């Protein structure tokens, strides 16, 4: 079901009892999910949950215990809870995310399995739940998987565990399972969409109310349990400057879902991106779902506030949330703050495209995140991949994923980030065959860092036959806050001055690209990455942040802010 935060639920967050299972034997012969106890005098059990070993949920397990810092295997979690009055209504256990694999057991019964560390899943427990002594057991395994999404190598910290909210959701016998209430892409004064019940009963009455628009409508379901929404209303459209949201309530036979929804239109026209019919330039920044000061996975409302407020302060109207779907708090807070969002599934660099299961997994993740955020008007772009190398299998997979996204959500734009621009002298030629299937092309280029400038930045020539908007989805370089060049400005000094030059040059180049509709510096803040091993400056951190790991502003921050302020007041 979507929008669990708009429903009645009980949080199962807090301290959970845990068992650390490095050899991952608990799912096999040890059968930890049985939570067995010794019987009789001769019996013994070589594992046990208890108050002595606990971890916080939500929260990655790596940052909670030093011995778990680089742990990538199974941790078993147990939560016991009571549920008074459990006989009226239906009950679901909802997970915001578990990285990477979750096996879930409830009152001794296996509920199911989920693969993918960044999207929600749930299980119904109506027939299993008791008034008292309910036992929920989760195996969270964060081992990297060759045919996984992401694959076995990625440039971020592999935070494992139950990383987002766990909730017990209570509904009536029938409930609103899914809905889409959005602006009609062809008519800025028409709200269209559907409401879908969890059942295929026809003739069910659903009430839709939007108090501010004086909407109190009765919708009737068809034989598939769907009811259409079609309203003609004068609307205040959502924009970054005025992020207007409307309170919405849906009710079916006493089961209520509440939401705050904005209405906007996003499309491409030639090389332009149009928001509500007007060209918009995306002033962006890349954000990893990590609070650097804590060295931990971000998960809460206040974490979302920390990251998005930084982006706002930088002058952004757009963020690229990388390289995986971030938590709902971040999306919703960005929506409240007028920040447009690029969401991405972690089809990242070395994916095993030859493995037939990979496309299905990617599709599953896309379906899960598109369903979760389909009513978030600030989400404008679905990204299906980042820096994948062309091959027959890769091209085919990405083309099919692009078509899948357009089928699942025709009202948004599909994109991907490429790092294989063809360089000929100072010509940068877009040529990847997958680009044809996208609405917007993302390009990651690190001129001045990984690659030299082939010529004067302002003389660079970007060439594209695709007649599509391009976003420079990554650029930048590494520096350590406070590292000022003494005499020679050189890369290996990890100096702020060296990176400042990169930013000045990039900005000079931006002005020369006719089809450029947005830029996104890599990256908002320094972030943890185990393969960044330069022992003086990196120490397990990617140092390309505009902010240090303590949130200190580097020189590049001020350069980017001045550039964005200039774009905002039209002086750039
Ligand atoms: C890549 C990649 C990022 C990575 C960055 C870097 O382009 O997309 O995930 O962190 O470059 O090398 O710093």
UniProtKB/TrEMBL annotation:
<feature type="domain" description="Glycosyl hydrolases family 2 sugar binding">
    <location>
        <begin position="54"/>
        <end position="171"/>
    </location>
</feature>
<dbReference type="Pfam" id="PF02837">
    <property type="entry name" value="Glyco_hydro_2_N"/>
</dbReference>
<dbReference type="InterPro" id="IPR017853">
    <property type="entry name" value="GH"/>
</dbReference>
<feature type="domain" description="Glycoside hydrolase family 2 immunoglobulin-like beta-sandwich">
    <location>
        <begin position="175"/>
        <end position="264"/>
    </location>
</feature>
<keyword id="KW-0378">Hydrolase</keyword>
<dbReference type="InterPro" id="IPR006101">
    <property type="entry name" value="Glyco_hydro_2"/>
</dbReference>
<dbReference type="InterPro" id="IPR006102">
    <property type="entry name" value="Ig-like_GH2"/>
</dbReference>
<dbReference type="Pfam" id="PF00703">
    <property type="entry name" value="Glyco_hydro_2"/>
</dbReference>
<dbReference type="GO" id="GO:0005975">
    <property type="term" value="P:carbohydrate metabolic process"/>
</dbReference>
<dbReference type="InterPro" id="IPR036156">
    <property type="entry name" value="Beta-gal/glucu_dom_sf"/>
</dbReference>
<feature type="domain" description="Glycoside hydrolase family 2 catalytic">
    <location>
        <begin position="266"/>
        <end position="566"/>
    </location>
</feature>
<protein>
    <recommendedName>
        <fullName>Beta-glucuronidase</fullName>
        <ecNumber>3.2.1.31</ecNumber>
    </recommendedName>
</protein>
<dbReference type="InterPro" id="IPR013783">
    <property type="entry name" value="Ig-like_fold"/>
</dbReference>
<dbReference type="InterPro" id="IPR006103">
    <property type="entry name" value="Glyco_hydro_2_cat"/>
</dbReference>
<dbReference type="GO" id="GO:0030246">
    <property type="term" value="F:carbohydrate binding"/>
</dbReference>
<dbReference type="InterPro" id="IPR006104">
    <property type="entry name" value="Glyco_hydro_2_N"/>
</dbReference>
<keyword id="KW-0326">Glycosidase</keyword>
<comment type="similarity">
    <text>Belongs to the glycosyl hydrolase 2 family.</text>
</comment>
<dbReference type="GO" id="GO:0004566">
    <property type="term" value="F:beta-glucuronidase activity"/>
</dbReference>
<dbReference type="InterPro" id="IPR008979">
    <property type="entry name" value="Galactose-bd-like_sf"/>
</dbReference>
<dbReference type="Pfam" id="PF02836">
    <property type="entry name" value="Glyco_hydro_2_C"/>
</dbReference>
<dbReference type="GO" id="GO:0019391">
    <property type="term" value="P:glucuronoside catabolic process"/>
</dbReference>
